[in-house]
Structure prediction request, 131 residues.
Amino acid sequence: MTFLLILIAGVLAAALLLVALARPPGKAGTSPVRSPGCCGACATCEKTQRPPAATIEYFDDEELDAFRGASPDAYAPGEIDLFRDVLYTLRPGEIAAWLASLERRAIALPDPLRQEALAMHEESGGRRVTP
Prediction:
């Protein structure tokens, strides 16, 4: 009888281990979603749905909150430089997260920087995207 209980416990432990290893890496409780109207062809509108209590991740770019709701083609050259300064100080693996942070904060990336950001993301090993 004891042997049978040990055998069942071992099978259950192995099953739990297999389930844990089969789960893709990432944060628990996240699933990819697209914002309404997203074509799915670009990295800037792809984001990860986070639990409601999740906070917005900042990349030392709090000053960009002043541009919330601005049109991507309405930035002055000096304002575009503020975005460029942040973009070029990011580590290669942070670009997609920064773009998602801007999206969550309702801040549109200036049109002139869009291609630069996508190219930098692809160079850093990110998924190839079509603008």
User: Anything to note?
Assistant: The two ends are 64 Å apart (CA to CA). Residues 29-123 form one domain.
